[in-house]
């Protein structure tokens, strides 16, 4: 099968899921064509089944905003036509689903039928998509997709609650490559960061407001008043400066390190004792799953789909969004020497349930079903 994958090529979760999915499918013999505006960050593997088509967004002094959606739709048309694709799988509704609809209509005029699968990832629904400036197009393009998936039951529910959706939405959760994300022997690294046996707390995100990184820092500040601890913050984004100021204000700078964007995040996770995800919104929480695969328990909020991943009292704790006091108490409970090994073991066991080998076939089945039903509908 020849499949086109469209995604944001950046560090974001949707791009990671799309890229890892494409890589895994290519290893099984599918021909995968990535259609993105730059090389996806996680596209670190090359084989005879992987292809990359760059979307060339031409600008012109007249345009205040370069028309990405048009360049993408045109590229999709050409790739479908010349590479004889069987399916387009677009990740993130805005504007990928609507660009796919336009490409589909252009191809129809040329006698080519291309089934489109849209995967909803979170903010395309819970934040941006709901906004009146996008909502009509999002609703339309979800309804016009031949197949729709969402990464958690909660995201499916949210989509059905906020948009007038006629299509079935299949839930296919995020997945993890346990070959890559596993605890590595990095004791020298731990020794360098925690020379006196301090407990190590880690947070990774794109430092957007919804991630509530300030809660991470506040919880850490309370934890270190009780036990010796260090905090590593991985990633970068709009809130970073503010977070640095908060650390200075709280006097935690000596115990907090901002590491910026990292490719090999699994190396940091390998030495962590606790992962913090206090997000305001989170459709799934892929970053937390990556931590759990490296045997790191999770202290999280109860936002969105996180409780579908983090089992309260087993793999970590789930707390109300913004409840820093309870989060601190729960963090201290996990970090107790008598509790930590069990939480770590449970986190890994839970992560194994999302192993890519268990999720990949759900996408394969969904592709086959979507192609069949869309051609059957065409024949009617
Ligand atoms: O978390 C982000 O801001 C990035 C965002 C994205 O679209 O790249 O991540 C979303 O998709 C991930 C992969 O499906 C999910 O694991 C994240 O939970 C989801 N983020 C939000 O819902 C905020």
Hetero groups bound? ligand GMT
Q: Which topology of the largest domain does CATH recognise?
A: Rossmann fold
Q: Bin the helical content.
A: 40-55%
CATH class of the largest domain, anyone? Alpha Beta
Describe the main β-sheet briefly.
7 strands, parallel
What is the number of strand segments?
Answer: 13
Structural class: alpha/beta
Strand content: 15-25%
What is the correct CATH architecture of the largest domain? Answer: 3-Layer(aba) Sandwich
Q: Pick out the low-confidence regions.
A: none
Measured on Cα atoms, how large is the radius of gyration?
22 Å
Number of domains: 2
Mean pLDDT: 95
> What is the CATH homology-level superfamily of the largest domain?
Glycogen Phosphorylase B
Tally of separate helices: 14
Shape label: elongated
Our measurement of the CA-to-CA distance between the termini, rounded to an integer number of angstroms, reads 24 Å
Give a short overview.
By secondary structure, this protein is of the alpha/beta class. It is built from 14 helices and 13 strands.
Structure description:
This protein has 380 residues and is of the alpha/beta class. The chain has two domains: 2-175 and 356-379, Glycogen Phosphorylase B (Rossmann fold), CATH 3.40.50; 187-352, Glycogen Phosphorylase B (Rossmann fold). The chain is 43% helix and 16% strand. The protein has helices spanning 13-27, 68-82, 93-109, 123-126, 135-144, 153-162, 187-193, 213-226, 240-250, 265-269, 286-293, 324-335, 340-352, 356-379, and strands at 2-6, 31-36, 50-54, 87-91, 116-120, 147-150, 169-171, 199-204, 229-234, 256-260, 274-277, 298-301, 316-319. α8 packs parallel to α9, α8 (213-226) packs across α12 (324-335) and α11 (286-293) packs across α13 (340-352). It is elongated and about 70 Å long. The structure holds ligand GMT.
């Amino acid at each position: 099968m020849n499949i086109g994958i469209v995604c944001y090529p950046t560090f974001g979760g949707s791009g990671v899921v799309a890229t890892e999915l494409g890589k895994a499918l290519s290893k099984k013999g599918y021909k995968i064509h990535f259609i993105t505006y730059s090389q996806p960050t996680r596209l670190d593997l090359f084989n005879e089944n992987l292809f990359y088509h760059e979307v060339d967004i031409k600008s012109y002094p007249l345009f205040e905003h370069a028309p990405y959606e048009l360049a993408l739709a045109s590229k999709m048309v050409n790739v479908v036509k010349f590479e004889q694709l069987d399916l387009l799988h677009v990740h993130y509704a805005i504007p990928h689903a609507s660009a796919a609809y336009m490409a589909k209509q252009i191809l129809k005029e040329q006698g080519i039928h291309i089934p489109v699968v849209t995967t909803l990832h979170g903010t395309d629904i819970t934040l941006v998509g709901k906004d009146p400036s996008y909502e009509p197009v999002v609703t339309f393009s979800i309804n016009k997709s031949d197949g729709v998936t969402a990464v958690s039951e909660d995201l499916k529910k949210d989509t059905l609650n906020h948009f007038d959706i006629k299509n079935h939405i299949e839930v296919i959760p995020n997945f993890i490559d346990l070959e890559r994300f596993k605890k590595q022997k990095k004791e020298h690294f731990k020794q360098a960061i925690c020379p006196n046996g301090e407990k190590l707390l880690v947070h990774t995100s794109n430092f957007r407001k919804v991630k509530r990184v300030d809660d991470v820092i506040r919880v850490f500040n309370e934890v270190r008043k009780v036990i010796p601890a260090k905090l590593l913050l991985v990633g970068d984004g709009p809130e970073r400066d503010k977070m640095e100021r908060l650390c200075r204000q709280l006097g935690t700078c000596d115990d907090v390190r901002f590491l910026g964007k990292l490719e090999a995040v699994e190396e940091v996770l390998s030495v962590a004792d606790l992962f913090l995800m206090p997000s305001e919104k989170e459709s799934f929480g892929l970053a937390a799953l990556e931590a759990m695969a490296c045997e790191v328990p999770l202290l999280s909020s109860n936002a969105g789909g996180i409780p579908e991943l983090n089992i309260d009292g087993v793999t970590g704790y789930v707390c109300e969004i913004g409840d820093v006091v309870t989060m601190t108490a729960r963090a201290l409970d996990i970090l107790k020497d008598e509790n930590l090994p069990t939480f770590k073991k449970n986190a890994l066991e839970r992560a194994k349930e999302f192993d890519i080998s268990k999720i990949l076939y759900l996408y394969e089945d969904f592709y086959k079903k979507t192609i069949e039903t869309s051609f059957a509908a065409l024949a009617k």
